[in-house]
Amino acid sequence: METQNNVTEFVFIGLWGNKKIELLFFFLFLLCYLAVLMGNFIIFLTITCSHLMQQPMYYFLCHLSFMDFSYTSTVIPRLITDLAAARRNISYNNCMTQIFTAHLLAGVEIFILVFMAFDHYIAIVKPLNRQSCDMLMVLSWTVGFWHSIALLLMVLKLPFCGPNQIDHYLCDVKPLLKLVCKDIHVVSILVIENSGMVVVVIFLVLVASYIVILYNLRIHSSAGRKKSLSTCSSHITVVVLFFVPCIYTYILPAGSKNKDKDISVFYTVIAPMLNPLIYTLRNMEMKIAMRKVWAKVAHSGLK
Hints:
mainly alpha; 3% strand
């Protein structure tokens, strides 16, 4: 049976209905996006141009910065332009593309965070080598792809007959389910299993792994314990900022009245903006490497 679909475009309702507030947040989100670009570019350049790239933790951090930059670029530019636009429409095909791209990049980012925790855990016994790191990155892209393609195929089979107003600022599965002209009970459960439960399980695994890591730090020297605690606390902060809003968004059914679009600002804008600060301000190795790289850049520019 062919899917009935009378909708060729969708219209975003956005975050707020007040134009003055939206213009204020236009400049605020623009500054946030510039901070995301600058912060992640600095981390990416510092690691790729220094010896830190040889260490698994910084190898994954480099990829995490690239993911933050890529993921926010699928969401924030559209959010910024829509805040200043009179009409916030997006074509059906572009909406499906945004769903696939955002979930692919977010999925890869989630597994990078998992592998960073895994690296912290096994580094006590045997650090990962470069080949293992490359294989884990391939695995993260593979799992991220199948996660996003499963969601996309699910949405493509759904009939949209109208209305076409999305109560959100981006195309995502849950707000789109509210526009489907058929019973969404089964699909809603599948979305919770595909995204909500997966995020919950991964979050619990990460929490458990860090409890084990912190427990094992008892046998380390005071200096080693202090360094490991600083690294772990930074990573835990990033995990909480990203996963807790995701769990809230994806674990509840699509029909429930919650603040999905408000909470989603945390993992689409705020967390990617804070990540570079979290990983650099409390990391002495990054600070030293940054000074060396930028001194080298400045010296090259003067020649």
